[in-house]
Amino acid sequence: QVQLVESGGGSVETGGSLRLSCAASGSAFDIISFGWYRQAPGKQRELVASTSDNGRTNYAKSVKGRFTISRDNAKNTMLLQMNNLNPEDTDSYYCHGEYSAGRPRLCAIRAHPDTTLLEIWGQGTLVTVFH
Fold first, then answer.
1. CA distance 127 to 92
2. Across-strand partners of 37?
């Protein structure tokens, strides 16, 4: 079993920066795709940024140019650097990952594109941006 552990949330003034990190516990399973989502109370969870195993990235329009997602495949970790934060970024942020129970290593998943993936979520970390 693999779990995602998040850290780095907190409170910051408008224009400030925060860095979120997400680590997959243990080394039993490689995470093929990582992503950050955010959710405000009563609203749907939305994608903030994602990165695939080959480093390809995708960003929500609202954060493009301000946030940077990166990953370290060897360590099974992901970072989200958030700059120029504004109050609209205040949310709970959730780490998301996909892995294969039957093919634990990235190389095996890449060799078999039809591999069924399982998804996991972190517990969430709160980001508050105040005026």
1. 6
2. 47, 94
Strand partners, 78: 22, 71
Distance CA 70, CA 80 (A): 7
Helix ranges (DSSP H) in 34-94: none
Residues 65 and 76: beta-carbon distance below 8 Å: no
Token pair listed for 126: 């709160």
Tens of pLDDT along the chain (131 residues)?
789 999 999 999 999 999 999 999 877 889 989 999 999 889 999 999 999 988 899 999 999 999 999 999 889 999 999 999 999 999 999 999 999 999 999 999 999 989 999 999 999 999 999 99
For 62, residues 6+ apart whose C-beta sits below 8 A from its C-beta are 88
